[in-house]
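Fold this sequence, please.
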Amino acid sequence: MASGARASAPEDSVRTVSPGRRGEKGVSAPTGDSVLVGTLKSAASPVRAVAASPRPVKGKAGREAARRRLQLLPGAQAEGEGEGEGEGEGAEEQQQEEEEEPLLSVPEEDEEEAQPLPPVCMSPMRGMWRNEKVALYCDEVLQGCKAEDADEAMSKYLSEKLKLKDKWFGVWKTNPELFFVKYEEASIPFVGILVEVTCKPHQSSSSCFKVTVSVAEPFSSNIANIPRDLVNEILEELEHSVPLLEVYPVEGQDSDIHDIALALEVVRFFYDFLWRDWDDEESCENYTALIEERINLWCDIQDGTIPGPIAQRFKKTLEKYKNKRVELIEYQSNIKEDPSAAEAVECWKKYYEIVMLCGLLKMWEDLRLRVHGPFFPRILRRRKGKRDFGKTITHIVAKVMTTDMVKDLSSDTLLQQHDDLDLALDSCYSGDTVVIFPGEYQAVNLALLTDDIIIKGVGKREEIMITSEPSHDSFVVSKADNVKLMHLSLIQQGTVDGIVVVESGHMTLENCILKCEGTGVCVLTGAALTITDSEISGAQGAGVELYPGSIAILERNEIHHCNNLRTSDNSKSTLGGVNMKVLPAPKLKMTNNHIYNNNGYGVSILQPTEQFFIVAEEALNKGAASGDKNDDSMLSRVMQNLNLEMNNNKIEANLKGDIRIVTS
């Protein structure tokens, strides 16, 4: 079931090859985020006078009609005039067809300008809860079928809905490449045409879903100056048959059409997010259970349980897999005879790249991103250890070094001055100290901390600003036995990983400001973290994430305004100040912290089952309400079982509450 269409559809595009057609290539029509969020939008007004080079129209009459509507690029026009001198009329006409790149012009007064597209039906899938989506796909559509029968189940579901109405109006949205050989993607994300749709019964459930379309009146498009003759010509080439999934029913028709619109969106969503090309190639005892897991994954991405930057990494990996699969299919289709040795090698290279991406996606899906992606070590650098001569060096990071900067250092201190923080970190060996003076810095090497060093600012922590590099996945990552960051500000910009990730070993953050944009501080399994006198804010998940088997000590910190989701629906997200993932239980000691104004809970404890939740929830709620009471025997027992010690913390004004055990 390795369909080229399934592989080709990017995250923000609409599938154009219908279910059941194996090995067929297709084009995809980008339409924003309509596929993932399940909402359909049409342009309120057409794009005006776009710059694009349309495909040549067949036939002499067609060419003359196109010339009346198109203006030539000045460069191409001049080039055509110069090169055409002295040649025959036939050669000049052929040269114009092959070399000139015409642009769409504003229609003349006697030419028909396309009207704005009408709004398409809004999909009710956007408002569905996850259990409703699970019931729809697992119970109503798939009905417990196996992966190899999923195509047939989707075809049967869609066929039944199409019987409701055989004729209706819709917007045909397709790839601009079908109409134009040169265009600006920003100005033409897709070509939309208002069409009248005629559905015909299908001979078998495995046939490709296509419908017969004709241009509807009034002539309407999202591109005002697109020639109607060009549209008619393209439709004639396609024999007026287009993939059904490219057509979006418009509003203003009866309720049956809304049911058809929902069915189309159900099928699009299935192939764009739930289906994987390897599904029918591997045995799966309970395929509907796998689909349910993928629905949960999608819902977790939508409601922010999985923070936006981490979710974006998953989407990019999935899109890359699909694109690479299309590349392989297209490459194979261009080999007309027996492949040469070079072609065979290239096929194998592309295949193994797909296999690697496939394996990575499986790990993401199986663990549902609950373990911090991308499931391989972030740091591949080896430890340097100590210098051969056993001395340590203090690295001064400043544009200019003065005697006042080093007056407090002992006379035998070895110094090295850098104007770049990255160079200073690259020069470090275990035992070194990096002293940073006020300024704004960036350092890729902060994501490669393997040696035991101290990085500290001199002056006010607000004045030592270290910002992340947006093009990199990680900001600060450590696997050193003991690394310290002191008296500075970390400002996250665009990186998708946690602002600080302790992969292994122990890290200390002292008197630091952490302004998160992605996820917060993440302590992975087996790692340890100590945070004192610091401030954490702005995380899209929890401010501090403790993974199973990790250790953390939090003292005198402020954790606020976390779970700062970029989604319209954060009603289901529980993450807030501190989140513990229990199996095995992490160890957490919290003393004199202020956790407030987070969109989730102040402290959330993620339990894998409900067994412990029933016994402990009431006691935890009492303990939270009374502000860490130590004399509550049940609360003490619960915290002891969880290796959780809380003393004199102030947890208040968190949107969901103070402390909560959450079952996964």
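The two ends are 33 Å apart (CA to CA). The first strand starts at residue 13 and ends at 14.
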